[in-house]
Amino acid sequence: MKSDVEELMPRLLPVEFGASAEHLNMNGPPRNPQEYLRQVQLEASLCPEVVVAQIDPKKLKKKQTVNASVAGCQAAPMGFCPSLSWQQQQVSNFSDVRQSITKNRQHWSRQTLDDNVLMPKLTDEEGWKRFCLGEKVYLGTSSCDEESEPALDYNKVGFPPFLTIVSRLNQSTVLMVLEILISWFEERTFVPQLGRWLYALLACLEKPLLPEAHSSIRQLARRCAQLRSALESQEDEQLPALNLLICLVARYFEQNDLADQPE
Q1: Which of 101, 102, 250, 258 has the fewest CB atoms lying closer than 10 Å?
Q2: What does the pLDDT look like over 166-211, one tens digit per residue?
Q3: Contacts with 43 (C-beta within 8 Å, 6 or more apart), sequence order
Q4: Do 177 and 128 contact (CB within 8 A), yes or no?
Protein backbone atom coordinates (compact mmCIF):
# COMPACT_ATOMS: atom_id res chain seq x y z
CA MET A 1 0.00 0.00 0.00
CA LYS A 2 1.35 3.38 -0.96
CA SER A 3 2.11 5.99 1.72
CA ASP A 4 0.47 9.41 1.73
CA VAL A 5 3.70 10.90 0.44
CA GLU A 6 3.80 8.50 -2.50
CA GLU A 7 0.20 9.33 -3.34
CA LEU A 8 1.10 13.03 -3.63
CA MET A 9 4.59 12.60 -5.06
CA PRO A 10 4.92 9.32 -7.00
CA ARG A 11 8.42 7.96 -7.46
CA LEU A 12 10.07 9.09 -10.66
CA LEU A 13 12.54 6.20 -10.60
CA PRO A 14 10.76 3.11 -9.23
CA VAL A 15 13.28 0.38 -8.49
CA GLU A 16 12.50 -3.24 -7.66
CA PHE A 17 14.95 -4.93 -5.31
CA GLY A 18 13.32 -8.12 -4.20
CA ALA A 19 15.12 -10.16 -1.56
CA SER A 20 18.47 -8.45 -2.21
CA ALA A 21 17.23 -5.37 -0.33
CA GLU A 22 17.53 -7.26 2.97
CA HIS A 23 21.29 -7.52 2.53
CA LEU A 24 21.82 -3.84 1.65
CA ASN A 25 24.73 -2.31 3.57
CA MET A 26 23.69 1.24 4.53
CA ASN A 27 27.09 2.04 6.05
CA GLY A 28 29.15 1.28 2.97
CA PRO A 29 29.30 2.88 -0.48
CA PRO A 30 26.76 1.61 -3.03
CA ARG A 31 28.09 -1.03 -5.42
CA ASN A 32 25.75 -0.20 -8.28
CA PRO A 33 23.04 2.32 -9.29
CA GLN A 34 20.26 0.20 -7.82
CA GLU A 35 21.90 0.12 -4.39
CA TYR A 36 22.45 3.90 -4.51
CA LEU A 37 18.75 4.54 -5.25
CA ARG A 38 17.71 2.10 -2.54
CA GLN A 39 19.93 3.86 0.01
CA VAL A 40 18.36 7.19 -0.91
CA GLN A 41 14.87 5.75 -0.53
CA LEU A 42 15.62 4.20 2.85
CA GLU A 43 17.20 7.39 4.17
CA ALA A 44 14.17 9.38 3.01
CA SER A 45 11.80 6.93 4.73
CA LEU A 46 13.57 7.55 8.05
CA CYS A 47 13.01 11.32 7.87
CA PRO A 48 9.96 12.66 9.74
CA GLU A 49 7.24 14.16 7.60
CA VAL A 50 7.24 17.35 9.67
CA VAL A 51 10.41 18.93 11.04
CA VAL A 52 10.50 21.79 13.55
CA ALA A 53 13.72 23.79 13.62
CA GLN A 54 15.27 24.47 17.03
CA ILE A 55 16.24 28.16 16.80
CA ASP A 56 18.15 30.09 19.43
CA PRO A 57 16.60 33.60 19.39
CA LYS A 58 19.78 35.07 20.86
CA LYS A 59 21.67 34.24 17.68
CA LEU A 60 19.25 36.05 15.42
CA LYS A 61 20.18 39.52 14.24
CA LYS A 62 17.84 42.33 15.12
CA LYS A 63 15.50 43.76 12.53
CA GLN A 64 15.66 40.85 10.10
CA THR A 65 12.25 41.69 8.69
CA VAL A 66 12.27 44.78 6.53
CA ASN A 67 9.11 46.83 6.77
CA ALA A 68 9.30 49.66 4.26
CA SER A 69 6.76 52.11 5.56
CA VAL A 70 5.16 54.41 3.04
CA ALA A 71 4.14 56.95 5.67
CA GLY A 72 5.25 60.48 4.87
CA CYS A 73 6.98 63.10 6.99
CA GLN A 74 5.28 65.57 9.24
CA ALA A 75 4.95 68.87 7.44
CA ALA A 76 7.34 71.59 8.56
CA PRO A 77 5.84 74.30 10.79
CA MET A 78 5.27 77.67 9.20
CA GLY A 79 8.63 79.30 8.46
CA PHE A 80 10.69 76.15 9.15
CA CYS A 81 10.62 74.73 5.62
CA PRO A 82 13.71 75.38 3.47
CA SER A 83 13.35 76.92 0.04
CA LEU A 84 13.54 74.81 -3.11
CA SER A 85 16.74 76.56 -4.22
CA TRP A 86 18.35 75.73 -0.86
CA GLN A 87 17.38 72.09 -1.23
CA GLN A 88 18.75 71.94 -4.78
CA GLN A 89 22.03 73.47 -3.65
CA GLN A 90 22.41 70.92 -0.84
CA VAL A 91 21.79 68.06 -3.25
CA SER A 92 24.43 69.47 -5.61
CA ASN A 93 26.97 69.81 -2.80
CA PHE A 94 26.20 66.31 -1.56
CA SER A 95 26.66 64.87 -5.04
CA ASP A 96 30.09 66.51 -5.26
CA VAL A 97 31.06 65.01 -1.90
CA ARG A 98 30.01 61.53 -3.03
CA GLN A 99 32.01 61.81 -6.23
CA SER A 100 35.07 62.94 -4.30
CA ILE A 101 34.80 60.02 -1.88
CA THR A 102 34.40 57.53 -4.73
CA LYS A 103 37.36 59.00 -6.60
CA ASN A 104 39.71 59.05 -3.61
CA ARG A 105 38.47 56.04 -1.65
CA GLN A 106 41.40 53.83 -2.57
CA HIS A 107 43.91 56.51 -1.61
CA TRP A 108 42.39 57.25 1.80
CA SER A 109 41.81 53.61 2.67
CA ARG A 110 45.55 53.00 2.32
CA GLN A 111 46.46 55.68 4.85
CA THR A 112 47.56 54.48 8.26
CA LEU A 113 45.15 55.10 11.10
CA ASP A 114 46.39 56.75 14.28
CA ASP A 115 47.20 54.42 17.15
CA ASN A 116 44.18 55.60 19.15
CA VAL A 117 41.71 54.67 16.38
CA LEU A 118 40.41 51.22 17.26
CA MET A 119 37.45 50.49 15.01
CA PRO A 120 34.78 48.19 16.49
CA LYS A 121 34.05 44.75 15.17
CA LEU A 122 31.31 44.49 12.57
CA THR A 123 28.66 43.11 14.93
CA ASP A 124 29.56 45.25 17.97
CA GLU A 125 26.55 47.58 18.05
CA GLU A 126 27.39 49.19 21.39
CA GLY A 127 31.00 49.62 20.27
CA TRP A 128 29.91 51.54 17.16
CA LYS A 129 27.71 53.83 19.25
CA ARG A 130 30.65 54.63 21.53
CA PHE A 131 33.00 55.05 18.58
CA CYS A 132 30.79 57.44 16.60
CA LEU A 133 29.08 59.36 19.39
CA GLY A 134 31.63 59.22 22.17
CA GLU A 135 31.22 57.99 25.71
CA LYS A 136 29.65 61.24 26.94
CA VAL A 137 26.74 61.06 24.51
CA TYR A 138 26.49 57.28 24.68
CA LEU A 139 26.37 57.24 28.48
CA GLY A 140 24.43 60.50 28.74
CA THR A 141 27.00 62.07 31.08
CA SER A 142 27.44 65.80 31.56
CA SER A 143 29.87 67.65 29.32
CA CYS A 144 30.47 70.53 31.75
CA ASP A 145 33.99 69.35 32.49
CA GLU A 146 35.24 69.77 28.90
CA GLU A 147 37.06 73.01 29.72
CA SER A 148 39.17 71.23 32.32
CA GLU A 149 40.41 68.69 29.76
CA PRO A 150 43.65 69.94 28.13
CA ALA A 151 43.55 67.54 25.16
CA LEU A 152 40.78 66.33 22.88
CA ASP A 153 39.83 62.78 23.77
CA TYR A 154 37.99 61.18 20.85
CA ASN A 155 36.96 58.26 23.04
CA LYS A 156 34.88 60.71 25.08
CA VAL A 157 33.56 63.00 22.34
CA GLY A 158 33.43 60.49 19.48
CA PHE A 159 35.65 59.94 16.47
CA PRO A 160 34.71 62.18 13.53
CA PRO A 161 34.02 60.35 10.24
CA PHE A 162 37.48 60.99 8.84
CA LEU A 163 38.02 59.87 5.25
CA THR A 164 40.66 57.44 6.48
CA ILE A 165 37.90 55.77 8.51
CA VAL A 166 34.83 55.82 6.25
CA SER A 167 36.89 54.80 3.20
CA ARG A 168 37.57 51.50 4.94
CA LEU A 169 33.90 50.64 5.34
CA ASN A 170 32.33 48.31 2.79
CA GLN A 171 28.65 48.60 1.91
CA SER A 172 27.44 46.06 4.44
CA THR A 173 29.28 47.92 7.22
CA VAL A 174 28.02 51.31 6.01
CA LEU A 175 24.44 50.07 6.11
CA MET A 176 24.86 48.32 9.45
CA VAL A 177 26.35 51.39 11.18
CA LEU A 178 23.67 53.58 9.59
CA GLU A 179 20.94 51.32 10.98
CA ILE A 180 22.57 51.33 14.44
CA LEU A 181 22.72 55.12 14.61
CA ILE A 182 19.22 55.63 13.23
CA SER A 183 17.88 53.15 15.78
CA TRP A 184 19.67 55.08 18.55
CA PHE A 185 18.28 58.34 17.16
CA GLU A 186 14.70 57.04 17.33
CA GLU A 187 14.67 57.37 21.11
CA ARG A 188 17.03 60.29 21.61
CA THR A 189 17.56 63.85 20.51
CA PHE A 190 19.84 65.15 17.79
CA VAL A 191 23.52 65.79 18.57
CA PRO A 192 26.28 67.14 16.26
CA GLN A 193 28.28 63.90 16.39
CA LEU A 194 25.27 62.01 15.08
CA GLY A 195 24.73 64.52 12.27
CA ARG A 196 28.31 64.26 11.05
CA TRP A 197 28.19 60.48 10.92
CA LEU A 198 24.79 60.30 9.26
CA TYR A 199 25.93 62.68 6.53
CA ALA A 200 29.16 60.72 5.96
CA LEU A 201 27.41 57.34 5.86
CA LEU A 202 24.77 58.63 3.44
CA ALA A 203 27.61 59.93 1.27
CA CYS A 204 29.06 56.40 1.18
CA LEU A 205 25.72 54.66 0.57
CA GLU A 206 25.60 53.26 -2.95
CA LYS A 207 22.64 53.51 -5.30
CA PRO A 208 20.39 51.79 -6.18
CA LEU A 209 19.36 51.29 -2.57
CA LEU A 210 18.86 47.89 -1.01
CA PRO A 211 15.46 47.37 0.65
CA GLU A 212 17.08 47.63 4.09
CA ALA A 213 18.67 50.97 3.21
CA HIS A 214 15.42 52.24 1.72
CA SER A 215 13.58 51.54 4.96
CA SER A 216 16.31 52.98 7.20
CA ILE A 217 16.71 56.32 5.46
CA ARG A 218 12.94 56.85 5.37
CA GLN A 219 12.89 56.18 9.09
CA LEU A 220 15.66 58.78 9.47
CA ALA A 221 13.74 61.45 7.53
CA ARG A 222 10.56 60.87 9.53
CA ARG A 223 12.44 61.14 12.82
CA CYS A 224 14.06 64.41 11.71
CA ALA A 225 10.66 65.80 10.71
CA GLN A 226 9.23 64.74 14.06
CA LEU A 227 11.93 66.61 15.99
CA ARG A 228 11.64 69.62 13.70
CA SER A 229 7.92 69.90 14.40
CA ALA A 230 8.72 70.26 18.10
CA LEU A 231 11.23 73.11 17.68
CA GLU A 232 10.10 76.42 19.12
CA SER A 233 12.34 78.80 17.19
CA GLN A 234 13.62 79.16 13.65
CA GLU A 235 16.96 80.06 15.20
CA ASP A 236 17.35 76.65 16.80
CA GLU A 237 20.78 75.29 15.84
CA GLN A 238 19.29 71.86 15.11
CA LEU A 239 17.01 73.15 12.34
CA PRO A 240 19.55 73.35 9.46
CA ALA A 241 20.86 69.85 10.18
CA LEU A 242 17.39 68.33 10.38
CA ASN A 243 16.35 70.08 7.16
CA LEU A 244 19.52 68.86 5.45
CA LEU A 245 18.98 65.20 6.33
CA ILE A 246 15.34 65.33 5.22
CA CYS A 247 16.42 67.02 1.99
CA LEU A 248 19.07 64.40 1.16
CA VAL A 249 16.78 61.46 1.82
CA ALA A 250 13.92 62.95 -0.16
CA ARG A 251 15.67 64.76 -2.99
CA TYR A 252 18.91 62.86 -3.58
CA PHE A 253 17.72 59.35 -2.74
CA GLU A 254 14.43 60.04 -4.52
CA GLN A 255 12.02 59.46 -1.66
CA ASN A 256 9.92 62.21 -3.16
CA ASP A 257 6.88 61.73 -0.95
CA LEU A 258 9.04 62.81 2.02
CA ALA A 259 10.26 66.03 0.39
CA ASP A 260 9.61 69.44 1.92
CA GLN A 261 7.30 71.51 -0.22
CA PRO A 262 8.18 75.22 0.11
CA GLU A 263 5.35 77.55 1.06
Answers
A1: 102
A2: 999 999 999 999 999 999 999 999 999 999 999 999 999 999 999 8
A3: 26
A4: yes
